[in-house]
């Protein structure tokens, strides 16, 4: 792994802080298994702008700090996996999905990441935590994940288009 510059470290901390605010302070719970929030946006931006490792670290820090300080349910360590995946996958899949920067390509990337991390992994972990089945929770959580992914994709597209660094990004 390459050395993380001070600039990148500050950007990762800033994006983690924004994620905490968007998730823990501005997000809201419909039920104890369904939360509507947009805290994934800064995590995905960290991955797209700084790389998958930086995105994964940003996701982990945002989740551990946010859940430890602000979660009404306490910190459950396995639920750190989805934010780490949301930080890892966009950076890894950027060469595949973002060969050229188009809104539909960004939506495909965000939707894929949200389906893996938000619909599959989070639902599986919540099912285990609450003692219910995966297939009982999935139909309830999936429409929310799909709806939130539309807003996330549009926001990530606009912000990434403005913030990307030409010297680092081939896109």
Would you spell out the secondary-structure blueprint of this structure?
Elements: H1 6-25, E1 28-31, E2 34-36, H2 40-50, H3 52-70, H4 81-97, H5 103-130, H6 134-163
Antiparallel strand pairs: 1-2
Helix pairs in contact: 1-2, 1-3, 2-3, 2-4, 2-6, 3-4, 4-5, 5-6
Report the helical percentage. over 70%
Shape field? globular
User: For the CA atoms, what is the radius of gyration?
Assistant: 15 Å
Order of helices and strands: HEEHHHHH
Instruction: Give a count of the beta strands, DSSP E runs of length 2 or more.
Output: 2
- Residue share in β-strands: under 5%
Q: Average pLDDT, to the nearest integer?
A: 93
- Span between termini: 22 Å
Can you tell me the residue ranges where pLDDT is under 50 for at least 5 consecutive residues? none
Largest beta-sheet details:
2 strands, antiparallel
Structural class: mainly alpha
Q: How large is the count of helical segments?
A: 6
Side-by-side strand order of the widest sheet: 1-2
Structure, described:
The protein is mainly alpha-helical and 171 residues long. It has 6 helices and 2 strands. The protein has helices spanning 6-25, 40-50, 52-70, 81-97, 103-130, 134-163; strands spanning 28-31, 34-36. Strands 1-2 form a two-stranded antiparallel ribbon. The longest helix has 30 residues, at 134-163. The radius of gyration is 15 Å and the shape is globular.
